[in-house]
Amino acid sequence: MRKNILMSAWIALALLLAVGIFMQQESGAGTEPSATASGKSESTSCVYPKEFMKSHHMQVLDEWRHDSVREGDRIHVTPDGREFEKSLNTCLDCHSRNKMFCFMCHQYANVKPTCWNCHLSPMEVTK
Asked: What NCBIfam families does the database record attribute to this sequence (predicted)?
């Protein structure tokens, strides 16, 4: 019984440490994201605010996919006039610093996105 409690405590500590490391890597250790590789933006900030993207990124990606593939509209213009290419690469230009960026949250939420059916995952891309 005592051994099980001790093992559970070690596992919980390891998970907390892993989440802390992930959050530090995800935040870029205090650095701002770089501009997109599309060359469409001189911006150093995300397309939408962080809290919005945490809860709505799938809707944004679905809308971008529909606009790009079905409508031929490949440029997103923000209300403040910044332009971004409607591409998964726009997101990965900044968020690929942590190759596990997508996978950690999706695993935690127990969801299985289909992005990697067509796109290379950040873990498969070599720079």
From this structure: cytoc_DsrJ
